[in-house]
Amino acid sequence: MNTGELVELGQQLRVDSVRAAAAAGSGHPTSSMSAADLMAVLLAHHLRYDFARPAHPGNDRFVLSKGHASPLLYAAYKAAGAIDDEELLTFRKLGSRLEGHPTPQRLPWVETATGSLGQGLPVGVGIALAGKRLDRTGYRVWVLCGDSELAEGSVWEAAEAAGFENLDNLVAIVDVNRLGQRGPTRHGHDLDAYARRFQAFGWHTVEVDGHDVDAVDRAYGEALSTRGQPTAILARTLKGKGVGGVEDREGLHGKPLPDADEAIAELGGPRDLRVRVHEPPAARVLHAVESRSAELPRWDKGEKAATRDAYGKALAALGTARDDVVALDGEVGDSTRAEFFAKEHPDRYVECYIAEQQMVATAVGIAARGWVPYASTFAAFLTRAYDFVRMAAVSGSGINLVGSHAGVAIGQDGPSQMGLEDLAMMRAVHGSTVLYPCDANQTARLVAAMADLDGIRYLRTSRGGSEVIYGPDEEFPIGGSKVLRSSAQDRMTLVAAGVTVPEALAAADALGREGIPVRVIDLYSVKPVDRATLRQAAEETGCLLTVEDHREEGGLGDAVLDAFGDGRPVPRLVRLAVRTMPGSASPEEQLRAAGIDAESITAAGRLLAEEAVVA
Amino acid sequence: MNTGELVELGQQLRVDSVRAAAAAGSGHPTSSMSAADLMAVLLAHHLRYDFARPAHPGNDRFVLSKGHASPLLYAAYKAAGAIDDEELLTFRKLGSRLEGHPTPQRLPWVETATGSLGQGLPVGVGIALAGKRLDRTGYRVWVLCGDSELAEGSVWEAAEAAGFENLDNLVAIVDVNRLGQRGPTRHGHDLDAYARRFQAFGWHTVEVDGHDVDAVDRAYGEALSTRGQPTAILARTLKGKGVGGVEDREGLHGKPLPDADEAIAELGGPRDLRVRVHEPPAARVLHAVESRSAELPRWDKGEKAATRDAYGKALAALGTARDDVVALDGEVGDSTRAEFFAKEHPDRYVECYIAEQQMVATAVGIAARGWVPYASTFAAFLTRAYDFVRMAAVSGSGINLVGSHAGVAIGQDGPSQMGLEDLAMMRAVHGSTVLYPCDANQTARLVAAMADLDGIRYLRTSRGGSEVIYGPDEEFPIGGSKVLRSSAQDRMTLVAAGVTVPEALAAADALGREGIPVRVIDLYSVKPVDRATLRQAAEETGCLLTVEDHREEGGLGDAVLDAFGDGRPVPRLVRLAVRTMPGSASPEEQLRAAGIDAESITAAGRLLAEEAVVA
């Protein structure tokens, strides 16, 4: 396209943004209008993308980090012929694919859900990293960012990672329209302020008038010819550009234009330009679609092993069987044991340093490219990335997260290092799977099973060693459980998982010696839970005593309730969980202090048995 | 002290770090040894602190952001005479104040709990901001950071905030020992790499040999004489400095030295130097300790108002009555309505821009200085700061967090903007209070009540308006609930909160018309829950049907279980919650699609009543 056509295309994108928001009665047209010229030039001249084949491995990848500017995205889809005008005007309506913030669940051209600011660039870094290190094809990743969102630390985690990894296939386009939701940003139109920051993190930068289509065109060209560094294009723009009544004005964020018809007239009326987007180059998928079954590590019953060790060994074995498995870690691979994978498969290991948000974003990015990521750090530190996990679920992303050093059982390091909220956090994520194994063989099986599940899969591992209680050929279906002690006389059921399983077994033995037979269930699948087994135990024993190395809210105890959510009678439910703030102490002292060791369980069981007699 | 004495003091801190870790059998002596000279010079020459009066308003504030280097901190306490050698050797033992990672819960000289990396500098920024803008006294804030933790985006959120706020009372001392836990950091000993980054964010920087005590002394002096900018001192150090067998070596993170006696000998043996730390200058506390009771806004029953509006108005009124109340917001004050406070009390309003981690860290920092912060953003975006909230609980910090735009009820903006995991996340935090009001008068009362609670207090507000159902003089005790419909014939109880309260009331009316009388409880205090009322309802009606605009895990439904956790019989418990991934739609359509509107509740109630008849 020539200059005049590009200008016209930009105006069309503005008009269609205004029209979409007007039809919806809500949305962010002014945030779309500032970036319309940036989008027009990208679409017409630089993006290589086959809208008919969004899975094409050679396609460039575009991420709308400022997800609220969705009208612009959908206007661009229309200009590219991917959607028609009728669909454009379904924006934000019930059942429409064109949501307020775009998601890949509904639109095949969207790489990742955005709308929580500061996430598009981190995921874009993940995709670019996949391009460089895993796919090894030449696609480029274009991320359109807002200026407000550069206040998010996650953006600088991403900038640091991209600079360090020399991602010259990544271009961040920053729409510096100087206005956030509430008012001016910290740096207004000071492009240099942003450029200094990106440069410090090793990026090439270009400053440009974001409404000068020729200058924007040259800036993209400069980005494409830059080697060894990612490029940030800092574009000076005006929010609401093109309509005098709203241009560069405060107080108009997230609102349709006051008079859409007048605005459309001022923008020169509707147009119907079509863009022939460049075809992607030929490319192929590197990892095999078929994979062998993994030769998982095996432990003998009675051996002592930590589940974190089993995680590392099983993942390394899985990586041998499947060439689509990738491991990521937040600079604690010697603790999580991700290092076992790193040693065997260095090409498929991503060291994320201490940057948990970027680690999860990288996992989401490489999962979007068809890889199967396992990302690990301490369970406690996954809380750092909760917004990213939540948004990954909105994306429908399939990622594996592994949190080690769960619970008070870690001992001396104290509460800052103890994952005590992770089960609650992960259970509340839509469509998640939450697993908490108690021995090495169980861990290995679950690590392998996770790979083929949908959505967010979380595995919780423990620091200390424990006795292997299952044989290496035992199977552990997702949504299942194991009944470890059972008799027709059982007077209650102990429900445990992870480190509390051996404690519950010891308690069951002690109670049995006192003439109180109790059932023990290993509820390794915390979500989904094994409803049938829990219900049967409830009916047969009348009382469930849950024991968990986690806060009492949202963890194992609450999970048990899922089995009784359909209105059927609920048994007596008593929960043992961590109710105090631990300090430093040995693992054994911690379990005792929290009231979740064998003796505490025994005492609680004894009390419940007495009460039942009284009742 | 002269050069020789400073060198000796540094060696003493090393020896004591080695001794403490040896006595504990765990800990991080090598991470302590790298920073020993930095600490020695600070303690002896620059820190102004009265260990006998940690609450002295003129005290400088020291934050050990690399919290795992706690042996160094405790060795410094010993050198300052705050603890004795006997206590030093209780490090990491059960009951000791000297935890693996320091917390203010146990030690009066600790400003904030650390151990989750990348949090000390953000909280330090909050304290420095309090010094500049609220306390307006001349204390300085010194933060000792590790180099590994500079990979955390939160560090750059903090750097951005500090640069923008011109915090020249803040000094970040970065112990660049080049080694993280697992191995080398990204930038090794490249001090320039770090300096460029800090400079880009508006900081003054000084590069120094961290083992040259005179150079370190001059660097601190340069920091103190720098005006208008925070200073970062980038100190080149060696991990394990002073002991040949461990100095600058990989694989020794977080381990006691292999041979403590030999190491101590190599360091020149134990010493018993005492430091006379400089006295703080005279200073006074600015905010009044006593405060008037707030003239809260009032609404008439039947008026329509959004709880977010009530939040903003009530907070503004509270700010008039109490001069210790401070509001913070993540650049969405026009949405959360924190702007109402900002307009009336601009001196006590902190605009945090889109940086939720720093917002919470600032709240923790100013709370540490005696202020009462209320920090607001969309409920969904508080997930971004979960690690900070968790660590605030470890600190025992008293902060108020307010999440607006809760649930699917926001409508068209879609799932990225919907707080659907916030109740689960906040309930799992130790010692938290979780409140979810349904009308304006209730909101106002709860906003005022929050100020005087301990720990993390969370208030969930809604976007849309709803009818005021309570009079302005109604009281809402924390841990209470309101029974809104009740009769002796009730056949079940609807438990609702927030936006589901009016839906539950409408459902109760509809069911009543069908001859199914039901009770309705407004469970505005989600944690703690009103056990007595829930138990009574269970006994009298036999069935609880919970309805929440939240994921089914960890929210209102699970909270109800708390009332029955002591082993007493549980009623039938059925939960209605958000079980799908919403798209864009109107608020009414969203409630319907999620199955939590009046009609869905009515249908569920009808079904349960039939089942009860059958049963």
From TrEMBL, chains A, B:
UniProt-recorded Gene Ontology molecular function terms:
magnesium ion binding; thiamine pyrophosphate binding; transketolase activity
Coiled coil region boundaries: none
Q: Which cofactor does it need?
A: Ca(2+); thiamine diphosphate; Mn(2+); Mg(2+)
Q: Which GO terms describe its cellular component?
A: cytoplasm
Query: Locate the Transketolase-like pyrimidine-binding domain: which residues?
Result: 305-468
- Organism superkingdom: Bacteria
Q: InterPro entries of this UniProt entry?
A: THDP-binding, Transketo_C/PFOR_II, Transketolase-like, Transketolase-like_Pyr-bd, Transketolase_BS, Transketolase_C, Transketolase_N
Keywords, in A-Z order: Calcium, Magnesium, Metal-binding, Thiamine pyrophosphate, Transferase
Subunit note = Homodimer.
Query: So what family is this one in?
Result: Belongs to the transketolase family.
- Report the protein name in the record: Transketolase
